[in-house]
Amino acid sequence: MIRKIAYNVPMPYLATILSIVLIAANSWHVITQWFINKPHEVFTGIAHYYADYFLYISQIVKAGHMYTNENITPTWIYWFYNTLGLLRGNPFALYNASLVILSGIVLLLIWKICTKIFPKNTLMAFLFVTTASNFPNFSSGLLGDFWFSPTPALNRLGGVPHQIFQTILLFSIVIIFTQRNFKFRLIFLAVLSFLSGSGSPMQMFLLFIAMALYTIISTKKYTDLLIAIPALLGALLTTHEFSTQPILVLAKAWEDAQRLAVSPWQYSMALGPISVLIPFGIRSYIRSLTPLKSIILFYGTLSLLAFFSPLPSLLHTSATRWISPASFLLLPLLAAEGFQRISKFRILQSLLLVTYLTLTMLSIGIQVQSRSIPLASDPMLKFLNHLPTSYVDGLRAIQNDKTNGVVLTDPSIPIDIVVPIFTGKKSFTGQSIHTLYPEIKEDLRTKFFSQKMTSDESKKILTDHNIKFIITKKNGVLDIETVAP
After folding, report:
1. What is the pTM of this model?
2. Could you say which of 344, 377, 410 is where a domain stops?
3. Which of 84, 100, 223, 318 is the most exposed place for a label (fewest CB within 10 A)?
């Protein structure tokens, strides 16, 4: 049907056009801000929540804990961004270019899956999987939206490269696991499972259970399940790192505190228009199970059950870690199956398709707008996204100084979060979740610059925290003082 509407344009071409539109929409808030950047400004290309964004950018520039002055053992957790840094390019461009490339790979893998499950209606399935979104709510954004939700289409691509990379790993494991003739199959599965287990332990656990269920029920080839060993090793390494690194312990505690109270009804509303089609597709999907469809069915179902169960609380994890763009794949596939099921009712099918496209385009439009408005209206975000060149030149002067120490910035200048990026040195503050004792340090910083400390107290803060550079602002430019030994 969709091919008829498209006047017989080959399906891969239409899928490519749709993919380009989605990738552009996903980065539209970065693209538009790039175009309005002025010659005397350095564009930083903020792609998502600015504090996390600059944390990842700092890891591209230099590995280590850059937002706290303590000497902490380096962590390998940010290896993905450390690897990007080896390319030695503009870190902001590297980050956003990786988003585009990884998004393209995700969409290519989705197309691959859709061709195997819906060989005759691939484009229709691809449309549902890539665009399915919440019902639009013009007064408050997206109806049924919640933190870390995979239900909006652009959330499933998102602005965080390592999260997109995890989706790629999970999709790749599903595809390779069901292809018996894949060369070096077990070796690839072992490597991918290790990486996925280290990056997304909960999702790899759910996917392994899904693959184990399929193996027990269908193939009986238990050697496939040996991939549990590298997956478990990766998960144990990550768990150990998060339990021994002080900053990561605090970061995990913060995330675990983000408790969600999402009911099944609220979640169904968050699914948007596909929630109408899913019931029509369940029976048809189950009756025509293939190895690929079976694993996706088990994986997606286990993810939903875990999300709504007491399991996340019992394991002291955030419920959002038990759902992901990869496990969400099941639901739009069921909707595509339901849409195909009612194909004999041509008028109804056409009406549903037009309704779906209308609501989905509105929803994606709201998603784009919700990302763009803060960058255009919040003075601090606008400043950080378009830093004055004079400020950046001042920071880079510190980078050229071989003195090794911590940088302290005046609270009236919100640049502490970009200090590590342009200086390669630690910032006393800047990323509250990745700064030890953030409230105490923020209080010390405020008192220091408001001259509420005695001379001895001021010297003590500089000595105790190895502060070597003090940044204030005079006559519109940065004034940098190097602390004498």
Report:
1. 0.93
2. 377
3. 223
